[in-house]
Design a protein that fits this description.
Layout lengths: L6 H33 L3 H10 L1 H26 L3 H28 L1 H6 L5 H14 L3 H16 L4 H23 L9 H26 L15 H32 L7 H35 L3 H34 L6 H33 L4 H25 L4 H9 L1 H15 L9
Helix pairs in contact: 1-8, 1-11, 2-6, 3-4, 3-7, 3-10, 3-11, 4-7, 6-9, 7-9, 8-9, 10-14, 11-12, 11-13, 12-13, 13-14, 13-15, 13-16, 14-15, 14-16
Amino acid sequence: MILTRDKSFYKSLVALSIPIALQNLLTFCVNLADNVMVGSLGDSAVSGMYMGNQIQTLLQVFSVGIEGAVLILAAMYWGKKDIKSIKKIVSIGLSFCVAVGAVLTALCAFFPDWIISLFTNDASTVSVGAEYLGIVSFSYVFFCITQALIASMRSVEMTGIGFFVSLLSLGVNVGLNYVLIFGKLGFEAMGVRGAAIATLIARICECLCMIWYVFFKDKRLNYTFSDLFRYDKGLCLDFFKYGLPIIAGQLVWACNMLSASAIMGRQSAEGAVTALSIANTVNNLAYVVMNGMSGAVGIITGKTVGAGKEEKMKEYARTVQAIFLCLGVITGLSVFLVRDPVISLYNISPEAVAEARKYILVLSFTIVGTCYQAACLFGLVKSGGDISFVMKNDFFFVFFVVLPSAVIATYLNAPAWLVFLCLKSDQIFKCFVAAVKINRFDWMKNLTR
C-alpha cells in the first residue's frame, strides 16, 4: 500500500502545512516587493540589492539550522507532552540564534564594501550593495528572535502565528518601500537605501509582535521571561549533539549558495547577476508550498517517532514520497509557465531577460528533484532522528559535485546557463540517495531522554 488510509495524517498535513506555506508565501512577497520596486531603478540596483542580501541568506540558512535543532528535539518531546523540556530547548536555541545575528550585524555594519566585494568585482554593484547592507544588517538580531520564537510555536503544532506575523511584515515593508524608495508623502526618494530602511522597520515590527504573542498570549507552551534563563546540562548537550550536525549541514548549504553567487557574479554574460536574482525569486516562489508541506511532515515525523510509533511512520513515509514526487512535477511545469510573466515585472536590459529565461528553464527541471529529495531528507530522515546523514550527504554533493563542476565549466568558458545547471545538479542526483535511504527505514531514532 503506497498511500496511508490514516485520515488523521492528511488532516494534520493540511492543517500544519497551510499556515507554514502562507507564512513562506508572505515572506517571499516581502522579498518580491523589494525586488520589483527596486527593479524599476535598473540592472545595477537589482544586482546590488541581490548581493547585499547574500548575508541575509547566510543568516537565514544558519538560523534554519538552529531552528531545525529546536524543532526536531522539541517536536519529539511534544510527542511525550514534556513541556518543561521544550521550554529549555527553546531557550538554548534562542540564545544561540541571537548571538549569531549579533556577530553578523557587527561585521556587516563595519565592513559592508569588503563583504560585497567578495561576491562581485563590478564597482556599481559593490557600491549599491554596500549601501543596502550597511543599513539592513541592523535587522539581523530582530530576524533571529522572530524565527526562533516561530520555531518554538511550530514545535507544539501552533503554526498560524507565523502567518499573521509575516502578513504584518509584508504590509509594513510594502508601504514603506513605496514611501521611501520613490519619495512619497513628503519623503525624499532614497532608492535602495529606502528599501533597506523599510526592511529594518518591518523586521522590528514582526519581532515585537512575536514577542507579545509567545510571552503574553500563547497558552500551549506558556513560555515566560524567566524561562529564558533556565538551564539543563543534559538538554544542552543534546542540543549540541543533535543540533550541530544540522547547523553544520546548513553551513555547508550556505557555502554552496555564497560560492554560487560568487561564481555567477563573475560570469562574462551581460546581465548574469540580474538574471540570477530573478531566477532565485522564481525558485523561492516555487519552494513556498513545498517547504510548507515539508515543514508539516517534519512536525508529524518528530511527533510520531517521539511517541514510538515506528510502523505507523513507515506507512507515512511511503505516502510522503508519492505526494512530493507528484508535487515536484506540478511545480516544475508551473515554473516553466510563469517565467515570462515574472520577468516582465522587471525593467531590465534585453540581455538580462534572455539570461533569466535560460536560468528559469533550468529550474523547471531541477525543481522536480528539489521537491522530492528536500522534503524526504528533511521531513523524514532529519526529523526522524538521523541528523548526521543529511549533513554528510550535503557535504559530498556540494564539495565534490556542485562546486567543482561549476568551477570547471567557468574555466572552460561554458555558457552561463550551463554553469547555473551545474550549481543545481545536486537537486536531481540527491533523489536517488533519498529513495534508497528512505526505504531502508533505518533513520527512525528517538532522541528524547
